[in-house]
C-alpha cells in the first residue's frame, strides 16, 4: 500500500492487529518479541530449512489470516523475516524459487501464498526469482495425513520445468509452512535430480516437534 492510501487505510500489524505507520510492516513491540535466532530443521542430508518463527500463537494466526482471510499485507513482514532468517543461516543462493500449490487451489484462493512470499523475499535478498517447479500431479491435502502418508503423498507430484535455470545453481526453495518437511524434501529432490548444485529451504514457520 502506498503512503497516501496508508493515511486513509492504515495497515495493521500481522501479529497483534495494532495500527501501523507507513512504511512499517509490523509493530516495534512484536518485532522485538518475535525476533530471535532462526529455527533450523534438517530436511534430509545436505538440505536444511530456516524459518524466522515456530508455527504457533500470533504467528500461526497471522499466517492463517494471510492464507484464508485475504490479509495480503502480512506477506511484507513474512518475506522480510524469511530474508533475515536466511541471511543469518548463511545459505548460499544464486536464485529463489517456491513450492507451488495446485492450479485449482491457486484459482480458488486467487493467489499462491508461497509464490507471493518467495518473490518478495528474492527482492529483499537481491537474487533472481524463477518458478522452477510445477505441480503436475494430483494428491490429497497434506494436513489431513499422518507423517508417513504425507511422505508418500508428495512423491511424483512435482516437476522441474526450467532446466537451464536449475542446472549447477544454488537454490533457495520457499514454502509457507514446514510441517514434516516431506513437501520440501520432495521438491528439493526434484531440483537436485534436475542438476541443481545445492538446495536449501525457507518457510515462514516450522512446526515444533
Ligand atoms: Zn504487533
Task: Describe what you observe in this structure.
The chain is an alpha/beta fold and 209 residues long. It has 2 domains: 1-35, no CATH class; 36-206, Rossmann fold (3-Layer(aba) Sandwich). Helix content is 40%, strand content 20%. It has 9 helices and 8 strands. The strands form 2 sheets. Strands 1, 2, 3, 4, 7 and 8 form a 6-stranded mixed beta sheet that branches. The chain has a two-stranded antiparallel sheet with strand order 5-6. Helix 4 crosses helix 6. The protein starts with a helix and ends with a strand. The model has no long low-confidence stretch (mean pLDDT 93). Bound molecules: zinc ion. Zinc ion binds next to helix 2.
Task: Give a short synopsis of this structure.
The protein has 209 residues and is of the alpha/beta class. It has helices at residues 3-8, 28-34, 57-68, 74-89, 103-109, 113-125, 147-153, 163-166, 182-193, and strands spanning 39-44, 47-51, 53-54, 95-98, 133-135, 158-160, 170-178, 198-206. It contains nine helices and eight strands.
| Backbone CA Rg | 17 Å
N-C termini distance: 37 Å
Bound molecules: zinc ion
- Assess the beta-strand content as a share of residues: 15-25%
Low-confidence stretches at least 5 residues in length (pLDDT < 50)?
A: none
The count of DSSP E runs of length 2 or more, i.e. the number of strands, is: 8
The CATH architecture of the largest domain is: 3-Layer(aba) Sandwich
Number of domains: 2
Q: Helical amount among residues, as a percent range?
A: 40-55%
Could you say which overall geometry the principal axes of the C-alpha atoms support? globular
CATH secondary-structure class of the largest domain: Alpha Beta
CATH fold group of the largest domain = Rossmann fold
Pairing-aware structural class of the strands and helices? alpha/beta
The H/E string reads HHEEEHHEHHEHEHEHE
Main sheet specs = 6 strands, mixed
Task: Tell me the number of helical segments per DSSP (H or I, 4 or more residues long).
Answer: 9
Integer average pLDDT: 93
Amino acid at each position: 500500500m502506498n503512503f497516501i492510501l496508508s493515511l486513509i487505510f492504515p495497515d495493521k500489524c500481522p501479529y497483534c492487529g495494532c495500527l501501523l505507520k507507513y512504511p512499517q510492516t509490523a509493530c516495534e513491540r512484536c518485532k522485538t518479541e518475535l525476533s530471535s535466532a532462526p529455527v533450523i530443521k534438517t530436511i534430509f542430508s545436505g538440505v536444511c530449512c530456516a524459518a524466522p518463527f515456530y508455527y504457533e500463537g500470533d504467528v500461526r494466526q497471522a499466517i492463517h489470516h494471510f492464507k484464508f482471510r485475504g490479509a495480503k499485507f502480512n506477506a511484507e513482514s513474512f518475506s522480510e523475516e524469511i530474508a533475515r532468517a536466511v541471511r543469518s543461516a548463511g545459505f548460499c543462493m544464486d536464485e529463489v524459487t517456491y513450492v507451488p500449490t495446485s492450479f485449482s487451489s491457486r484459482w480458488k484462493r486467487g493467489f499462491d501464498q508461497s509464490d507471493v512470499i518467495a518473490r518478495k523475499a528474492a527482492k529483499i535478498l537481491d537474487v533472481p526469482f524463477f518458478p522452477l517447479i510445477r505441480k503436475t500431479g494430483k494428491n490429497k491435502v497434506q494436513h489431513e495425513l499422518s507423517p508417513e502418508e504425507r511422505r508418500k503423498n508428495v512423491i511424483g507430484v512435482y516437476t522441474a520445468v526450467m532446466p537451464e535455470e536449475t542446472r549447477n545453481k544454488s537454490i533457495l526453495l520457499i514454502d509457507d509452512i514446514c510441517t514434516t518437511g516431506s513437501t520440501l524434501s520432495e521438491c528439493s529432490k526434484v531440483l537436485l535430480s534436475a542438476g541443481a548444485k545445492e538446495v536449501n529451504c525457507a518457510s515462514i514457520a516450522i512446526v515444533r516437534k
